[in-house]
Description:
Blueprint: H1 2-26, H2 32-45, E1 50-60, E2 63-74, E3 78-83, H3 90-103, E4 107-112, E5 119-124
Helix pairs in contact: 1-2
Amino acid sequence: MIKAEYRHSELTSEVIGCAFEVHKILGNGFQEVIYQRALAIELEECGIGFAREFDMPIFFKGRHIGSRRVDFLIEDVVSVELKAIVALNDDHLAQGINYLEAYNLEVGMLINFGSSSLQFKRLMNKKFKTEK
């Protein structure tokens, strides 16, 4: 478990570094999709594996009821949701946590490019279940 925690910490730190580079160059004021495209380029240049707009199924009592797209799935283990708004609020945090629980991912991130300083939150799934 410690190894997985270390890997998550390492990955989230690398993603935060990429996000800072994007924000340093672009600043705030663009639409979310612009930051998404720029972050994809930065992640690629840093050799970080990712899937962009990754479609993930949502289940209720074992039945497929729809799907949602996470902005990035990093190395198949960390979800990243981007925002380009003035400030993050509890609704955005809840969305990030819901994605972690729905996809059974242990760690996620919420990154906001919309403020004058980059904002980010690491999210933990308290309901995470390790597969046996």
